[in-house]
Structure formats: C-alpha cells, structure tokens
Specification:
Radius of gyration: 21 Å
Number of helices: 19
Strand order of the largest sheet: 3-4-14-9-10-13
Number of domains: 2
Helix content: 40-55%
Bound molecules: pyridoxal-5'-phosphate
CATH topology of the largest domain: Rossmann fold
CATH architecture of the largest domain: 3-Layer(aba) Sandwich
CATH class of the largest domain: Alpha Beta
Largest sheet: 6 strands, mixed
Number of strands: 16
Strand content: 5-15%
C-alpha cells in the first residue's frame, strides 16, 4: 500500500484513507506520497483513445489501491466527471483548457466531486456521520457544498462573508438546502475563517467532532492531476513534452501538474503566473521566501493568497523544508525549480489589458484568473521560444462568474451557462450571524448537537 509522509517529517506515515480523513498531518505538515506511481509510455499513448472518466480511473486507481475496489472507483469517476472538458484551440498549438463546465463553473469541482464521493464512502463504511465546517471566499464553498449535496451521513456548514461574495456565488450555496447549511457572516473572509478555526480548537465543541474543508487535503490534489494527462493525450504526440500554464493562488492546481509530471507525463516547463501576490516569483528569483501578510486584494480574487500552503509540498519535492509558518529550514534545489518552473506576477491593470487583447486578437473570452494565465504565457514567450510546442493555458472559472469585470472591459456581459442560469429565481436559505464567537457557538450547538452525525477529526477544503 502506498504510504503518505508529512512535509514536516515529524508525523507517522499513513495510508490514503487516513490522509484523506486527517487533511493536515499531526505535525502541521502536509501529506505527500512517499513515492509516485509511474504510468509508462505505452499506457500514456493509449490515453488518446480514452474518455475523461476512464483516464481519471487509470490515474487515481494508482493511489486508491487497497482503499476502494477498482469497479467502485470506475463508477465514482463516471459519476463525478459527467461534464465536458473543452480544449479550445487559439493559435498554432496553443489551447485553452476550460475547467469550468462543472456544476459550480470552477475547476474546484474536479477535486470536490471526487473527494465528496471518496469521503462519503469512508463515512458509510464507518457507520458514523460527519459534519464539515468550512469558510469560503466564494469558489471553494460552492464547489464543496454542491459536491456533498445529498451525500448520506454528511452535513456541510459553509460560512461566507455577506458582502464579499457575488450574487451568483452566494446562490450556488444557498439554494441547495437538505444537508447543506449556509451562514452569512457580517464580516470579511478572515472573520469567517477565524470563527471556523476557533470552533475547531474549542474544547467545549470536541464532542461535535467537526471536520474542515480546505485546500491542503491530498485528496484535493490527486484529482487535479488528471486533466493534465487528458489535455496531453489530446494535444501532444506520444512522448512529446508540453507546457502547461496554471494561474495560481494556493498552488493546488499547479501541484496537480507537478504530480502528473512525477507520474511520467512529459513536461517541458510549468508556468505558474500569480496576481499582485507575488511571493512565489520573488522566491524563484531571489531564493528568499517572504510571505505577504495580509494578502493583497486583486481582481482575480480566488488567487489572493500571500502564503500558499502548497509551497510546502513543492519545496519538499525539490529536497527542501518549508514549514506552515513560512520558515525555510532547508532550501530546495533552486536550480532545478527554476529549470522546471517559470513564474511571473500580473497586476490588475495587465489583467484587464489581457482580457481586452485576448478578445480582440483571438476572440478568446477570459475571466480575470484565466487572463492572469494568458498573460503568464505571453511573459514566458519573451524568455523562451515556443515554436510549435504544445501549450495548454488553464482557464479556472467560467467568465459568467465574473460578469462585472468582463463587461467593464469588453462592454458586454458573458453568456450564462445553464448550470448558473438555473440558480436564478430559486429560493435562498441562509442564516445570518455576526462576527462574535459566542453567537456562532450557540448556532453550531443548536444545529449540530443531537441531530449531527459524529466522526473523528478530519479536514477538507
Ligand atoms: C481557487 C482558484 C484558483 C487558484 O487555484 P490554486 O489551486 O489555489 O492555485 C484560481 N482560479 C479560480 C477561479 C479559483 O477558484
């Protein structure tokens, strides 16, 4: 059985089941597989003939061996990935990989839908229930709520800042009901996160056995490696290395590409553009890591991360040690990092310019996160010739999730896909709370106590 080790090196190795249920390792490090299973060249070549869910099965079964029967995993992959994964040709061999066709129209659906099914299965085997408590600035909460909606034995409580999520993001959470409970907090995202963290640490709530949902769970990363295999199978010749451009915030999406590379997918370079939160390109250039605190508010708001938790994993894969507070205890092999990765910071001004230019030059419609990606490719092309190299730029959300930003630049609103249009007119249900912890605790007790399923410690976001 594949074992998972903590990046901090002070926690026992665990199997996938425990890594999924724990989220963070007990030494506050993040789990990584001890070694990466390899997919050999002949099998990779065969991916060209396979549909997305089957590629997902081939990749994920390497990790779930011993935890879930192959037939069962195959069914889960078919159910989780029942939507399109478009590769839009732009020019030469450059494509945009649109990861926005899931039910909440962001790439977070890919991971959330797989994790919900895997955790749902573990909970069903345990015969105990689980309450997932999560704070969101928008996309994670809606993807998690949608993915866990109707999963037996699991209740989800999502806190969101009342004035900081868009109408559409809010409706994606508040129209679900059943096992999904949403709470509008009169405060900022940081207030929501503080309430959740305080609840987890509250000795008077340990009997509720709450579990969290965050981006550090290894279960979030593994499904995010699949679409890189898929894109390469459609775009590259057998064995031909690709460039992927991944607009990054917490670097979970990028880690999916790194994992695919370690499993045998030929990569020429990974490009990880960021917004004004430029700690990573700074680190690549200088070798000194300086987190940005507080993070800077940018147009591509899902990437407003000043200390990306997944950097601990990236640094570990290159032989270094970065802890959860941002201290480098052992530097990674910077030369190898620079060889494999390119990064660049894209300001809001350049993001808007890119939305305009991509539309004018190619009739390519991008939202702010995808525009950071596209500009990242253009920046990369100034340092490296990309003649006939297959390139996929990842578009992480649907333009209709950011209608104001697009209309302000292009003068027209993006078309709304059916998944988002369905939300209009549906009744919304949510509780309203202030920022004070006492009020939140009373709310939690009222909602969870007595009726809530119980479970041991667990993390998910
Ligand atoms: C979460 C998110 C990102 C950032 O992804 P990371 O894995 O955190 O780097 C980018 N774009 C959108 C639309 C997102 O929701």
């Amino acid at each position: 059985m594949l074992r998972f080790l903590s990046t901090n090196g002070k926690a026992p190795a665990v199997g996938l089941r425990e890594a999924l249920l724990r989220g963070q390792a007990p030494d506050r490090g993040l789990y990584l597989p001890e070694s990466f299973p390899r997919i050999d060249a002949p099998e990779l070549e065969g991916f060209a003939e396979l549909a997305y869910p089957e590629i997902a099965f081939r990749v994920l079964s390497r990790f779930t061996d011993g935890m879930i029967a192959p037939d069962e995993l195959r069914v889960i992959c078919a159910e989780a990935y029942d939507y399109e994964v478009p590769l839009e040709p732009v020019y030469d061999r450059v494509h945009v990989l649109r990861l926005d066709q899931g039910p909440t129209a962001s790439f977070k659906d890919f991971a959330a839908r797989m994790m919900a099914r895997l955790i749902g299965k573990l909970v069903a085997e345990d015969g105990r229930g689980l309450t997932i408590l999560t704070a969101t600035s928008g996309d994670t909460g809606s993807a998690v709520a949608s993915a866990f909606h109707g999963v037996p034995g699991i209740r989800v409580i999502v806190l969101f800042p009342v004035a900081e999520v868009s109408d559409r993001q809010r409706k994606q959470m508040t129209t679900l009901q059943d096992n999904i409970c949403t709470v509008a907090v009169d405060g900022k995202f940081d207030d929501c996160q503080a309430l959740v963290k305080t609840a987890f640490a509250d000795p008077e709530l340990t009997h509720l056995a709450l579990s969290s949902a965050n981006s550090i769970n290894i279960g979030r990363l593994l499904p995010q490696s699949v679409y890189y295999f898929y894109a390469a199978s459609r775009m590259a010749q057998p064995g031909e290395p690709m460039v992927f451009v991944v607009p990054s915030g917490n670097f979970g999406n990028l880690m999916g590409a790194v994992i695919a590379g370690r499993m045998g997918l030929p990569l020429r370079r990974l490009v990880a553009p960021v917004n004004g939160n430029d700690e990573f390109p700074d680190f690549l250039a200088s070798g000194d890591y300086r987190k940005i605190e507080p993070s800077r508010a940018c147009l591509s708001n899902a990437m407003n991360v000043g200390h990306p938790s997944n950097l601990a994993r990236l640094v570990a894969l290159y032989g270094g040690h970065l802890d959860e507070r941002g201290t480098v205890h052992r530097p990674p092999d910077m030369e190898a990092l620079r060889r494999d990765l390119f990064s660049t910071a894209v300001s809001d001004e350049r993001t808007r310019e890119t939305i305009r230019e991509a539309w004018q030059a190619h009739r390519l419609l991008l939202e702010p996160h995808g525009a950071v990606g596209w500009r990242g490719l253009l920046d990369f092309a100034t340092v490296e010739t990309l003649d006939r190299v297959p390139v996929a730029v990842v578009e992480t959300a649907h333009p209709a999730k950011f209608p104001e930003a697009i209309e302000a630049v292009l003068g027209f609103p993006p078309e709304v896909p059916p998944a988002l249009a369905r939300l209009e007119g549906r009744p919304e249900h949510y509780a309203e709370l202030g920022r004070d912890y006492a009020g939140f605790r009373a709310f939690l007790r009222h909602h969870v106590e007595g009726s809530a399923p119980r479970h041991s410690q667990n993390q998910f976001d």
